[in-house]
What we know:
Blueprint: H1 5-11, E1 16-20, H2 25-38, E2 42-46, H3 62-77, E3 81-90, E4 96-97, H4 111-128, E5 135-145, E6 154-164, E7 180-182, E8 187-188, H5 194-200, H6 202-216
Parallel strand pairs: 1-2, 1-3
Antiparallel strand pairs: 3-4, 3-5, 5-6, 6-7, 7-8
Helix pairs in contact: 5-6
Amino acid sequence: MTASLSSSLVHDSATQHWVLASNNQGKLSEFKRLFGAAKLNIDIVPQGELNIEDAVEDGLSFIENAIIKARHASRISGLPAIADDSGLCVPVLGNAPGIYSARYAGEHGNDANNNAKLLADLLPLRHKNPSAPITAYFVCVLALVRHADDPLPIIAQGLWQGEILEAPQGEHGFGYDPLFWVPELKLTAAQMPAEQKNAISHRGRAMQSLLQQLSAQ
Length: 217
């Protein structure tokens, strides 16, 4: 399953197996829902189930890191691989935490510490201008490789605009979701049901872009 992968996704009813180059359970759940809704007969296998360790993310952009992770998982598994590199960008912090979102406070994947650090870093700015909203946006870049040395990875990206609250709200989601306020809905990402979040989130938008590219090939 190499160069013909894209067209076979649309026309082949047999279940295909892709590796998700992540062990993040929140991302895995979202991907399974998104692929299930698209009815593509894709079985997403997290790399941990295949004893694949995390890649070294030494790229300087979301795109670079997504490709690095996808190639790493595909090379070890021998399967097509999809990788997600995503994060939160806050313009008043120079777009930090950016590509370092998952390890912003030093320990990879510690959501509570990452959220606490973000709030602490924003506190002086809030004191200077208490009434000004802190705008932010989530970024998601998806990279799909048909095989480890795929010369033309499929890249899709999505952005989700919002604001950062002064305290967490909501019990759903993961990462910075409890702090990410969507003004037009008057909800945080962590207060949304999964279906609603997937329809409008950065990952959902990147996924729609990916599906459009696959359908066009």
